[in-house]
Amino acid sequence: MGVYVLDHPLIQHKLTYIRRKKTGTKAFRELVEEVSALMAYEITREMPLEEITIETPVATMESKILSGKKLGLVPILRAGLGMVDGILRLIPAAKVGHIGLYRDPETLEPVQYYAKMPSDIEERELIVIDPMLATGGSAAEALIRLKEMGARNLKLMCLVAAPEGIERVQHEHPDVDLYVAAIDERLNEHGYITPGLGDAGDRLFGTR
Ligand code: PRP
Ligand code: URA
Description:
Layout: E1 3-5, H1 9-19, H2 25-43, E2 49-55, E3 60-66, E4 70-77, H3 84-90, E5 95-96, E6 98-103, E7 110-116, E8 124-129, E9 132-133, H4 137-148, E10 153-161, H5 163-172, E11 177-183, E12 186-187, E13 193-194, H6 200-205
Parallel strand pairs: 1-11, 4-5, 4-6, 4-8, 8-10, 9-10, 10-11
Antiparallel strand pairs: 2-3, 6-7, 12-13
Helix pairs in contact: 1-2, 2-3
Bound molecules: 1-O-pyrophosphono-5-O-phosphono-alpha-D-ribofuranose (PRP) and uracil.
1-O-pyrophosphono-5-O-phosphono-alpha-D-ribofuranose binds at residues 76, 78-79, 102-103, 108, 110, 130-139, 165, 191, 199-201.
């Protein structure tokens, strides 16, 4: 498993505003969408291309289009939803599966409550998206479920990761590359990433 920190200046700049306590719901949501699109732009840099023949208004030419596996996005509900629209703006043909997991506040273990995937997930390159990788329990569980459903080609994309979460996902899913905008110091006693950005779902949806 590779761990890649996407350090493009625009990603880092916007992440700073996402982290700030005084950033309100509307700006938080917009910034998460923007950073997600920028991260997807970086992640798709190596996508294979093929040449096709086209007619421009002036001449015939060989020009490039995307080839290879089709993409799928899998947001982990709820906070992963905040990353979907930004990515779809770049890759509108991607299909979107959903997996619903919440972290039990006492045990911090993930509890699944929903899953609905495109019928052809085994043929797709899937990007699992969630703003936060804290203990890694939710992401590791989502990856297990997706593999059980037939997924073979998986990437994980998170805004902020704790070393503890990276270690867990690396250990349990050595075949899955991880892309993050930042690796923070550690988890605090409540299992929150510190310094982090707080509760991503609540900040996205204004529920606290
Ligand atoms: C948050 C976050 C991740 C999970 C990360 O979701 O969006 O899914 O916690 O923590 P972990 O790495 O320790 O599993 P949460 O459980 O708060 O649910 P929500 O998205 O519905 O708010
Ligand atoms: N979930 C969040 O939303 N934030 C954290 O810091 C940890 C888990």
